[in-house]
Amino acid sequence: MNFARQQKQIETAEALAPGASPIDAAETEAPKGGLRGRYAWLGTIASLAILAGSLFVLWKLVETVTWAEMHAAFTGASAEQLGFAFLFVGLSYLFLTCYDALALRQLKLKVPYRTTALASFTSYAVSFTLGFPLLTAGTIRYWIYSSKGLGAAKIAALTVIAGFTFWLGMGVVLGLSLIVEAGQLAALTFTSIALNQGVGFGALLAVVAYLLWVSLKRRHVRVKSWRLELPGASVSLSQMVVGIGDVCAAAATLYVLLPAGTSIGFTTFVAIYVLAAMLGIASNAPGGIGVFEATILLALSSLPRDQVLGSLLLFRVCYYLVPFVIALAMLTVYEIVKRTRAARA
């Protein structure tokens, strides 16, 4: 669920494969430097400020929670809760494999789904846990997809298109939940109903505007000498559906782990989850750790803090740690099988 710094991924692929292009190459390279180069450090400072502020808030929120209380909350989940949690984890990662499948369709590349599923699942599972998606996810994708003939440029393009899938789904879910549950969210986040509805309509308007923009004619994203054709309306609608499914399944994983008797509706919780995820992405911390937890704890301040913290820790285990371990095992088996076949050839 973390697709930050995608333009940097294109530029890195350019360095790996000079002269290549995801779709077409522009004849001239855009001028270097400019305002973007001068003020790029502002984004880093903003990310560090979000992370530092969130860690401080998180520390203040949990300093009254004892280890005994947290252990009891962490181990208090029922078998039914864990079963549903892992069901939604599997569903979320299944949708993540569709991110790559749709991107490959847009790039008109034929790759077996088993390869797509392996590359997608392992790259997301590893990058979600370790962070640095440019290095971790990019390396794993190249490791697997290169055996099917995809170069660095195509893999970079695939990553960018997958990122559009994520943000389309995030925008729709955030917009609808803010509009539908504006009143309850206002009480939880100390905002106004009008503000929540305004942000919700703004998010939906942005998604609709993007869909109209790509449906009128072929659109391209250009970075330096790169020219990447964006998906049209039909593929974009498919991306939107897949993105919505991923976001809702990931949110449902944490929702079913919340303390029993939670009165917050799922639609309301999805808006809180999306906000926490977006702040986590902005912080550039691996998995939004610290920032995500602080946002959830603040929004759910009406619930027992130790129990919510236990749910968050269990969510980290279910959604991040377990898939991470499975991904490492799958990559090990993949490499053994590949080397065995090469030795027999």
Walk me through the structure:
With 345 residues, the protein is mostly helical. Helix content is 74%, strand content 3%. The chain is built from 14 helices and three strands. The chain has helices spanning 6-16, 34-38, 40-62, 67-74, 79-106, 113-130, 136-145, 152-180, 182-189, 193-216, 233-255, 266-283, 291-299, 305-344; strands at residues 24-25, 220-223, 226-229. Strand 2 and strand 3 (226-229) form a beta hairpin. Helix 8 (152-180) runs antiparallel to helix 10 (193-216). The longest helix has 40 residues, at 305-344. Residues 3-33 have low confidence and may be disordered.
- Please report the number of helical segments: 14
SSE order in H/E notation?
A: HEHHHHHHHHHEEHHHH
Strand content: under 5%
Task: Round the mean pLDDT to the nearest integer and report it.
Answer: 79
Runs with pLDDT <50, length 5+? 3-33
Walk across the major sheet and give the strand order: 1-3-2
Q: How far do the termini sit from each other?
A: 39 Å
Query: How many beta-strand runs?
Result: 3
Provide the gyration radius in Å. Answer: 21 Å
Tell me the overall shape.
Answer: globular
- Main β-sheet, in a few words? 3 strands, antiparallel
- Percent range for helical residues? over 70%
List keywords for this structure.
345 residues, mainly alpha, 74% helix, 14 helices, 3% strand, three-stranded antiparallel beta sheet, globular, 3 strands, disordered N terminus
Give a quick rundown of the structure.
The protein has 345 residues and is mostly helical. The chain contains 14 helices and 3 strands.
